[in-house]
Design goal:
Layout: H1 7-19, H2 25-32, H3 40-52, E1 56-61, E2 64-69, H4 73-86, H5 91-101, H6 104-138
Antiparallel strand pairs: 1-2
Helix pairs in contact: 1-3, 2-3
């Protein structure tokens, strides 16, 4: 599991992820300078460190490099969540607490993600089962309760 990015590493990676293409130190520097005073060598060092840590790959272009993200921001966030969850002595309780912190929009995004992971066949079978259970509750003792026998 990767260590969480530092504040400056995150600021640099945010640009690399956002642009989704190979970038130069100069491009990142110019964008960062809109928010803070920062030196070219600082950005170069951060990108070199990110390369050493495996966050970006680089390709020589003349005397400089172009840097590109190795994975997505979503994969990074997922790895952080997985690491935090796996460190819990009670993973179920940790999930319940986490879900309790979520907004309605986040809970809907979670439901959508579960449907995607389960795939269309699983979602259809789940809906069919829910429909059968609802019909059984409405008509207890019906033929459907006995598998059609």
């Amino acid at each position: 599991m990767p260590r969480p990015l530092g504040e400056l590493e995150d600021a640099v990676m945010t640009r690399v992820w956002k642009w989704n293409r190979p970038v130069t130190v100069r491009e990142v520097l110019e964008d960062l300078q809109q928010e803070r005073s920062i030196a070219y060598t600082t950005v170069m060092t951060v990108l070199d460190n990110l390369h050493q840590k495996g966050w970006v790959r680089r390709e020589a272009e003349g005397r400089a490099y172009r840097y590109e993200a190795v994975s997505t921001r979503a994969a990074y966030a997922a790895a952080l969540m997985n690491d935090a969850w796996s460190q819990s002595d009670n993973p179920a309780a940790a999930l319940v607490a986490f879900f309790g912190m979520m907004s309605d929009e986040q809970r809907q995004a979670l439901r959508d993600a579960v449907r995607i992971v389960q795939g269309p066949d699983t979602a259809e079978r789940h809906e069919e089962r829910e429909g059968r259970e609802a019909r059984q509750e409405e008509n207890p003792g019906s033929v459907a309760d006995h598998g059609g026998r």
